[in-house]
Amino acid sequence: MRRIDAVARTALATGTAALLLAGGGAAQAAGGAATATTPAAAIPVPAPDSTSTPVPAPAPAADEITSERAVEIAKEKAPGAEVISVERVHEQGIWTWWVRMEEGVWRYDLYISTKSGRIVRLKINYNW
What is the model's pTM? Predict the structure, then answer.
């Protein structure tokens, strides 16, 4: 009977200490005062506004190439093609100028780095 009491007391003491430490009662277990914390679920988060407009891409910095320079680079790659659109997009982890061009039945999509002017991606499609 004594053996069972000793085992029970050891288990109870070990379980209580583990519970205090795991439950955030380390300060109480050490004899100090507990500090109040706000649970993350209690912090109010504003609901998304369904009428808001998307945030536009940031304007090009002074050290970045302009859309006009991107069009020049694209025309070097696809001479004779007509520029359809130019947009600033995020492609493959970097900001690029997306230049869409067409020539007859061919469509060219060029993604040109805004920092270096390097062609990051080139897609050529046959449209018939």
Answer: 0.52
Nearest to 91, CA basis, from 66, 69, 123 = 123
Q: How far apart are CA 61 and CA 66, in angstroms?
A: 9
The pLDDT tens digits of the residues spanning 104-123 come to 999 999 999 999 999 999 99
HSE-up of residue 50 (Cα within 13 Å, Cβ side): 0
Extract the tokens encoding 110: 């060029």
Report in angstroms the alpha-carbon separations of 83 from 47, 60, 106: 41, 20, 12
